[in-house]
Amino acid sequence: MDTFACLYIVRGEPFRPGTCLNISMPETVFGRTSAGFSPDFSFSNAFISRNHFVIRRENDAAVLYDSGSPNGTEINGQKVVPHTPYRLQTGDIIKLAKGLTVIHFSYLFGEQTLELEPLSSAMWEEPSGATTIHWEKRECVVGGKPIAMSEKEYLFLDLMYKHANQLVTYHDIKQTVWPDRPLGPGGAPDVHTDELNALIYRIRKKYKNTFLISAVRGNGYILETDAKESAK
Fold this sequence. Notes:
Order of helices and strands: EEEEEEEEEEEEEEHEHHEEE
Domain OmpR/PhoB-type: 121-225
CATH architecture of the largest domain: Orthogonal Bundle
CATH superfamily of the largest domain: Winged helix-like DNA-binding domain superfamily/Winged helix DNA-binding domain
Number of helices: 3
Radius of gyration: 19 Å
Number of strands: 18
CATH class of the largest domain: Mainly Alpha
Domain FHA: 28-80
GO molecular function: DNA binding
Distance between the termini: 50 Å
Protein name: FHA domain-containing protein
Strand content: 25-35%
Number of domains: 2
Pfam family, one: FHA
Shape: globular
Strand order of the largest sheet: 2-1-11-10-7-8
CATH topology of the largest domain: Arc Repressor Mutant, subunit A
């Protein structure tokens, strides 16, 4: 059968970041292999159920159903109701195993050469305390220490938090963070990729990897959030 959709691994053992899982069957089962059961695509994390979720082809659309897994399935930061259909859209972010497995859904086959930036081990270090963002003051408190945001840091983080756990495209980031730049090819502000990467690098270093920012090369960035972070 022809592939009609793809899942790209942001992270999820045993797959390497950037692996493309082609969806072509009427029903595709995702889960964890065990004695007597093997899903179509298997992850090794113990928090993932044997039959965790399925994607069915319904009227040429990919529809996800959580199979009643104890730890659940999240799409764009919202927990899916078990056995209830969720019609997937390009850019949807699927999370399993408390965020240890993250998958990017797409109908766009042009992304089949997609590479995802590997996360360094430093990005998994826990901050010394809770993170709080005071947007009106444009400061981030990390482990009790206030850190002032620059204009571009503020614009970038504000945009990413408004679309937390979702893919934010390079085009949208450039429009938001560099609104006064002349337009370049494609209608986006003329900002070189190196300049954008440098901003992300400064944010990661300055805030001690508090923000878990995953780069989906050729597309944009995802800001992953959890209960340890808050904003005021």
